[in-house]
Design brief:
The structure holds two protein chains of two kinds.
Chain A (H helix, E strand, L loop, with lengths): L5 H6 L1 H9 L15 H7 L7 H7 L7 E3 L1 H9 L8 E5 L10 H14 L4 E5 L3 H13 L2 E9 L7 H12 L3 E6 L4 H12 L2 E2 L5 H22 L5 E5 L4 H12 L6 E6 L9 H4 L9 H9 L17 E7 L1 H15 L9 H9 L8 E4 L11 H10 L3 E5 L9 E5 L8 E2 L2 H14 L7 H10 L4 H15 L1
Parallel strand pairs in A: 2-10, 3-4, 3-6, 4-5, 7-8, 7-10, 8-9, 11-12
Antiparallel strand pairs in A: 1-2, 9-13
Helix pairs in contact in A: 6-7, 6-10, 7-8, 10-11, 14-15, 17-19, 18-19
Chain B lengths: L6 E9 L10 H4 L3 E9 L8 E5 L5 E9 L12 H15 L4
The chains are: A alpha/beta, B alpha+beta.
Chain lengths: 470, 99
């Protein structure tokens, strides 16, 4: 009989993952820090059928690109003369499961079916669970979703409770857990028990699916406006959304910068039982965005396909109150109820558009469905029940875990830039600290790609490192 | 007493406090890792009793029966004045006082 203890199962993670993803990650390894990222992406490309066509088989993609004319007009009120780009919104809520995550799930489920798996397991508290459940329903595969949902009092985050409902509505089995990273242990045990496919958010299949989003939005801009977007803003958590979108844009020949946007949740520990229900965003926040950007391979597969630091040219944060305000603004001015978490990039876009010329296009690349539990009204009610102060005022005064401050007027929709140099240094330091062998020239080149820099920069960071850690 | 065949939730402690992963923060380490799974009851069982269920994917899970016919009770919540104010201020900023 197999040893099912925490230590024993975690020690088997390599072999469990190998049989659950149908990919041999060891073959990609160099023995050093680097690995063959593009080789991994290429090896996962489905043969014969194009990714877009596979997604269409799941009724995924081809979502409308909406002109937010009133929000654009309002942003121009706060911009210098001649500035204020047109804000376009890719209405990803139109996917069958209500978010862009459908793109992330479709190819994984397709591959699982092709490779003969009977079912799929995924570890997610977010929209991705519903996306996998939806695709499994269409493919005739079984589906298990593992969620971190409750604190130790048994109080569920209403957004996650809603996502459990949606997964179950789409036919999935949902396993709910209290707070803690040992969710991964439960997940590994399930993979071993069932022999199902691991529809990780971080496999190449997931990111290849999202490439269609970047590709589509560029073609839609060219088709309708005869030009490329000047900027695309993506809500950033695990990095897959941004990575896939940027790669898809590059495939279409568009070099426009991609800006990451996250909700600022500084100071709240992501694995803390007590902090768990003191945040009103379960994704799209810095608690995932920053650690995954600076250490992508912390994910549930040996090598993550989501490597946002390779693509992002700017990383901004907004507050919880600013996203809630923007979500109301979208309803009041554009007649669309979406989000709220998916509107993180829209909240940032309102301010970013003011920096771009009037004739430029700024694309917000997602929306998500709304519903009971996840709606901003439900979230603020829940925040009040958890002792969070909710008020209208200057959003700069918001303290995550203590207060949520909704702006008094749209002029208070601003962004804060994260220091990209700091993030790059952090990525390099993390990679070097985990290295088992001396740093090679290939490793330096890999880290330069990882950080959109050059080998001189990487060398300089490594040389200065002991001082920084001291 | 829940009857055989009824749809119930069973609860399990996966890791008791003291056996939590080394990296979890103190407050979390002091609590157990608890799991809830839903399934069809395989024998009559009272609330609080141990029993087996068969889940929607056909797995057999044993645990403490904690809820019969589990439903969904999350909602849109109470009226939040700040959200309505947000709409009003956005409309006023675009359309003026006529909005």
């Amino acid at each position: 009989m197999k040893d099912m203890s925490y230590q024993a199962v975690m020690a088997r993670r390599g072999e469990i993952m190998k049989s659950a993803v149908g990919m041999d990650y060891a073959a990609l390894e160099s023995g050093g820090i680097g690995f063959d990222y593009e080789g991994m992406m290429k090896a996962a490309q489905p043969r014969g059928a194009r990714v877009h066509e596979i997604l269409r088989g799941f009724s995924v993609g081809d979502t409308p690109l909406i002109e937010a004319r009133n929000i654009t007009a309002l942003a121009r009120r706060y911009a210098r003369p001649g500035f204020g780009a047109s804000i376009l919104i890719k209405d990803e809520a139109c996917n069958p499961s209500g978010s862009f995550k459908a793109r992330r799930a479709a190819l994984s489920v397709h591959m699982a079916k092709e490779m003969g798996y009977k079912g799929v397991v995924t570890a997610t508290s977010g929209n991705y669970g519903a996306a996998v459940a939806s695709c499994c329903a269409k493919a005739g595969l079984k589906c298990i979703v593992v969620q971190e949902c409750y604190d130790s009092r048994g109080v569920g985050q209403p957004e996650i409770v809603e996502k459990a409902r949606k997964c179950e509505a789409l036919g999935a089995e949902v396993i709910q857990l209290t707070v803690g990273p040992e969710l991964f242990y439960v997940f590994l045990r399930l993979l071993e028990e069932t022999g199902y496919f691991n529809a990780s958010l971080y496999t190449p299949y997931a990111v290849l699916g999202i490439e269609t989003l970047g590709w589509e939005l560029v073609l839609q801009c060219r088709d309708r406006y005869g030009k490329d977007p000047a900027m695309v803003v993506a809500t950033n958590a695990g990095g897959g959304n941004l990575t896939g979108t940027a790669r898809g844009m590059r495939l279409a020949g568009c070099r426009a910068p991609v800006t990451a946007a996250s909700v600022a949740l500084t100071g709240l520990h992501m694995a803390s039982d007590q902090a768990f229900n003191r945040k009103s965003f379960t994704t799209g926040h810095t608690g995932f965005g920053v650690p995954f950007a600076t250490w992508p391979d912390r994910s549930d597969v040996p090598r993550s396909a989501a490597r946002p630091m390779r693509y992002l040219e700017r990383y901004v944060t907004v507050t919880q109150g600013q996203v809630f305000y923007t979500t109301e603004m979208l309803a009041a001015l554009e007649g669309m109820e979406r989000g709220p978490a998916g509107n993180t990039s829209l909240a940032a876009a309102f301010s970013l558009a003011q920096e771009l010329p009037r004739d430029a296009l700024l694309v917000v690349q997602e929306t998500e469905y709304t519903g009971a539990g996840k709606h901003q009204n439900a979230q603020l009610d829940f925040a009040l029940q958890n002792g969070i102060e909710v008020r209208t005022g200057d959003p700069a005064g918001e303290v995550p875990g203590r207060s949520i401050v909704l702006p008094e007027h749209p002029g208070q929709l601003t962004v804060r830039d994260l220091d990209l140099d700091h993030l790059r240094r952090s990525l390099i330091a993390k990679a070097v600290s985990g290295a088992k062998n001396p740093i090679s020239e290939a490793d330096l080149a890999f880290l330069a790609e990882e950080t959109r820099s050059d080998t001189d920069y990487v060398k300089q960071v490594i040389e200065n490192q002991p001082e920084e850690t001291r | 007493m829940a009857k055989k065949g009824e749809w119930v939730t069973v609860k399990n402690v996966i890791l008791p406090p003291g056996e939590r992963a080394p990296q979890v923060p103190q407050d979390t380490a002091a609590t157990p890792l608890v799991q809830w799974v839903k399934g069809y009851l395989q024998q009559d069982a009272a609330l609080g009793a141990q029993a087996q269920v068969v889940t929607r994917t056909g797995r057999i899970v044993e645990g403490e029966v904690v809820e019969e016919a589990p439903g969904y009770h999350h909602s849109f919540g109470a009226f939040i004045p700040q959200l309505q104010q947000a709409q009003e201020s956005a409309k006023k900023a675009l359309w003026g006082d006529e909005a």
